[in-house]
Structure formats: C-alpha cells, structure tokens
Structure prediction request, 486 residues.
Amino acid sequence: MRRVDLIISDGTILTMDGSRRVLDKGAVAVLDDRIVAVGHTDEIAREYQAERHIDASGKVVMPGMIDVHAHAGHGLIKTMGMEQGNHWEEICNAAYTVGSTPEFWFAEARLAALERLRFGVTTGVSLLGGGDTIMRTDDVAYGSAHCEGVAAVGTRSVVAVGPTRPPHPRTYASWHDGKASERPVTFEEQFAVSRKLLDLWHGRGRLNIALLTPVLRDEHQRDMSAADYEAAAAQTKAVRALSREAGVVFTQDGHWRGSVSRAEKLGILGPNALLSHAIDITPEEIRIIADTGTRIAHNPSAIASILGRCPAIELIETGAVVAIGSDATAPDRSADMFRHMQQCMHYHRAHFRDPSVLPPGKALEMVTIDAATALGLDRDLGSLEVGKKADIVVVDMQRPHLAPYQMPIFRLAYFANGNDVDTVVIDGQILLEGGRPLLTDLGEVIAEADKQARLLIERMGLKKMIGQPEGFFGHARYPKHQGDSQ
Prediction:
C-alpha cells in the first residue's frame, strides 16, 4: 500500500477533467504538492494510506477557484465615497499615487488574500492599483510589500504591474514621519520598476508577475494630444514586448469603444493576452479575439457590465476562452466567485430572455479550468487530475440553503456562497480548515487593515467620504448629480 500525505474521501468529487467526471463517494490522494490519485473512495482506500485524512461526507470537493481580474489596494478603500459622484475613483487615483505607503499595500494584500482563501479562491489576478491606468509602480517597495502580504497568507497570485497612461511624468509621493515627499515619475522609471518586480517575484513561491498597460480606446485617440497618443502606443508595444520576452501574461483593464480593433493593429493580442471587460465589442472584434486566441476576463458584477455588455456567450460560441473575474473589491463586490457565477448566469439569461443560456456547468468551468487556461496555468491548475497541483476546495453542503443532498453540483452553482467553503488546500498544504485560516491570525490581519485604512483617511482627509450619501434612504434612485459613480 502506497503512503501519501493526504486523502480527502467520501465526498462528491467535481473533477473538471476532460470528461467532466463527477464521482459520488469519491476521493483524492495527495503527495507533496501534487494529486496522485482521483477515484472512488473504496478504490483509493485499497491502494493508499495517508498521514492525514479528511472526511468529505456531505461535501463537494472541487478544484480551487481562479479569479482572473481584481485590483490590489481596493480592499482598504471599498465603499469610500461610493455612489457620491466620481469620488470613489478619485480616492483610488489619489491613494495609489500620493496617499499610500508600503504598510498600506502589505495590510491590504493580506486582507484580500485572506478573503480569497475564505471563499475558496486559490489563485487570483491582482492589478497593483485602480482603474486601467493608476498603478503603484513608482518604487519597487509597494509591489514587494503587496507580494509579501500575499505570501504570508499562502494563496496563489498573479500580480499585474505596468505604467500609467501618458502624459508623463506623473506625480507620486512617499511618506516619512507623517509628511509627503512628492516627485515626478517617468514612463521609463515605471517600466524599470515593473521589470524589477518581474525579476524579484515571478515564479517565487506561489507568486507570478503579469505585465499591463492602459487600454487605448477611441476617446483616447480623440482627446489626447498626437504626441501623447503616439507615446502611449509606443509604450504599449514596449511593455508587450517585455511580456513576450519574459513569457508572462499581458493584461489590460477596460476594453470598450474600439479598443480591441486598436489592440490588433498594435500587435498586442494573442494567447497570453488577457483583456478585461470587453463590453459592447463588435462582431468583427469577436472574430479578432477568436482568431488570435486572446483570452477574456468577463466581470459580470462590475459597473462596466451595467454600462455595456460583454458578449461572453457569443465569444464562447466562437471558441474563445472566457473566464470570470470578480473585479473586486471595487466598490460594491467581493471576491466570492459563487456570487459572480450566479450573477453571470442571470446577466446573460436576462439579455437573451432565455433561461437555457449559460448552463451552470459552463459557469463552473469559467472559474476553474477555463480560468486556468486564460492564465496559461491549465497544465497545473483548474481541475482535479493526477499530476496537477493539489489545489482543492471542500464545500460544506450540509446547510439549509444547500440541503437536501441531491443534485449537489447544481446546488453548488446556483445556491452556494463563499462562506460555505470548509477546507482549502493549496500545493497540498491545508490553509483553511473548518472555515478558519491556519497560517495567519485573522484578528491581527483585520486589526492591521483597520489601522492602515484609518491612517489613509487621516493622510488624505477623507472623513467626509465614509458616510451615507444623499438619497441613500427613501428614494428609488440617487439624485442626478450622483448618477455617474464608478
């Protein structure tokens, strides 16, 4: 009998393998950081003996979920100035250039990673800043602080770094003894910082680095000076060239208004390019995405998906890889991928007025194997198969909203939420058990996050941004002057 480190048995195994097998009373055996066997419990018991055993009776055992689009920093700013004009976005822009410290980024990274872990999200993309252009890449200290925070929790992360949109230089500030020291930062400096973060952190532990540039849409060519637009195009090509040289994901946030056609002309598309949102794209742009093998991060819960529609169904039907992102935590959405799956199904069914659109199994693929494919990680992640990384989530189905225990995969997709996650294993290491993190002190992480959020509010004078706006109660909609919120 072969000895292994861990056996999870007697659960419903959602493999997400090539045949999409679902095994009743199934088991998964783990040795070191890899899955060595997947099968029925009695078969595994005959061949393997484990140092540690988890009884998954009444539970679903599934691959770790993957969030292909979110933002670092937002966890300490969520809801500040929310629904008060554009204040939330303005706060992000200021915080990520002149208001934040390395301590802020470390505290937020731990909090966000802990939220992901609690919700069964074992891998996630995090842009080091807000919107599609404000990145904290003036100094390597901020990105390193973020990476250290994620590493302390133990989840996988793809940290996306890159320059801001022209014009340059852009003003950034560092804080010492309560005083800000401002300086202009050029594209060349941001590019150098991004390259240094790539050298320092890519492939280190469970961390990878991706590269990004701001999206160029029709309004940018219309409203920017000719010199600034030309610079933006050249900078985009330079960052994309580095991503190809390094073999890392290239991503952009906010595709809309002719941006996909523009990206094709710039030569930046391809299988390791991940475009976020992709709302109101044309049939020709759908064809471009499919023909180039470009991946799409669809964020059904985001404000962008209210302002326009990502044609995810049409993209999937052309053979494009579409995965779900949370766009968390900004400003009204969490990292709970169950929520975003459910939102995704309703979003497209409402559009087509057809409840047969986007079956729940496809939604599950979009946060597991399709998401792994979108990040080029499908050889190791996205399904429970022999030889793959042991990233495993156990969901407790013995809950009133999930009982009785029948059709468990349907109920998982339609009714589960992140708080139903009981156990999370990453690289064969149990990081969450009984809903409690094992590597980190939950109370200490939250206390430090509270402290850093308070310090940010003090530094930036944001006390007016943490109250309830006019029209919060007693109205069917906010007053007109508040209708342009992020």
Q: What stands out?
A: Residues 226-246 form the longest helix (21 residues).
